[in-house]
Amino acid sequence: MNTPVMRRYESPLRRAQAEETRRLILAAVGRLFESAPGQVLSFDAVAAEAGVQRRTVFRHFPTKDDLLAAFWAWMNRGVALRTWPENEADLLAMPPVTFAGFDRQEGLIRAALETPAGREMRRQANPERQAAFRRSLADATRGRDPRRARQAEAVIQLLYSATAWQSLRDNWDMTGAEAGEAVAWAIGELLAALRREAGREGEGEPG
Asked: Which of 30, 101, 111, 133 is deepest in the core (most CB within 10 A)?
């Protein structure tokens, strides 16, 4: 005799409530980053700020790594559709849009740059970020020696970053859009220089 399989039913209402709880928790992380930049992020503090029990935070995010990764993705969605490039065209088109998005979320972006928890969050995301830039620059660095390719990837990642946005805002009084335009221009010059060095001038440039 076959034992009937019990299927768990999850109602749309329960699913919506879970999503709202998740949003409350992530928003609480953002407020803690902004209001207590020197404080070590803890599950107790997040639960208190979100108005939920500690075990509720654990149910949605079993580890601090899970919580920080989810917050990073949630914060990026509030800045722009994508903040990492997928191809070379993105490197030229996206910086003004992304940096303008940083202006709209200035407190959170600065917290991500300046707080211990924010720096840890960025450190965890760095391998994925580096991989995105390597893919985007694969054609421009084709045929270059590994040392030069790595230099180009590192410098272009630095240019298209919240760190560059902060420096141009604070030291040159640029808006995010202006800073993004400057970065897009600089990246375009570097891409052209890479192709000149490789004897492939004109390849990959917009028509």
From this structure: 111
